[in-house]
Amino acid sequence: MQTVAVLVLIGCALSRSQVVQNEAKCSQCCDGSTSMTVGVLTEKVAQLVDRTTQLESRIQNTENELLELKSITRGTPKIAFSAALLDSGSGDTGPFNVATPLKYKKVFANFGSNYNSGTGIFTASVKGVYFFRFTMFNNLQQTPNSVVSLRKNGVSIVTLWDVSGSDSNDTGSNAAVLPLEVGDTVHVELQENRIVYDDQAHYNTFTGFLLFTN
Ligand SMILES: [Ca+2]
Questions:
Q1: pLDDT digits (tens, 9 = 90+) for 159-203
Q2: How far apart, in whole angstroms, are the C-alpha atoms of residue 102 and residue 96?
Q3: CA 85 / ligand 1 centre spacing (Å)
Q4: How remote is the CA of residue 170 from the centroid of ligand 1, in Å?
Q5: Which of 52, 103, 112, 139 is such that its CA lies 20 to 30 A from the CA of 190?
Q6: pTM of the complete model
Q7: Could you tell me the residue range of the domain that residue 16 belongs to?
Q8: How many domains, in total, are found in the chain?
């Protein structure tokens, strides 16, 4: 009986030794795996951030396309605006030491709300071909000093010019048909150190509308 008890105790001691060895091996194994797992996770997170950025860009593009499609599927997109320079009163606008968008404040119509009277800028919400026209009345001083241009995405397209002679009360207009992508902008710009005059007869106007989508 005593012999059996001794053998059992030896067996238990051997088993405990094996468990301790296995625990040590496992600890080494886990430390290595943890380092590898952190590296893999860091890479995965970076990939997810890239993917999220790409998805956000695609969602933005899809929203823009949806806005365009909604406008089209209602029938002919209703985009047309017309505005004059002064909402009230009379007087010169300018001169400014830098070229400045003219803010046509007296809004006669703004179907589609593509024209912003706070900035003077028209932003196309639909891809298509548009017509724009603007008029200019020169300053009332003896020497004319008025230059105004129609600009697409900041680039001059057509211009009105009256800067010499002794006449005043001159008016002029210019126009252009422009293909626009969604987000393209069109505005009328008073050139630096130039002046225009207006009153409630509304000589200076900015008008535009969509001719057709394409
Ligand atoms: Ca003139």
A1: 999 998 887 789 999 999 999 999 999 999 999 999 999 999 999
A2: 11
A3: 20
A4: 6
A5: 112
A6: 0.66
A7: 1-75
A8: 2
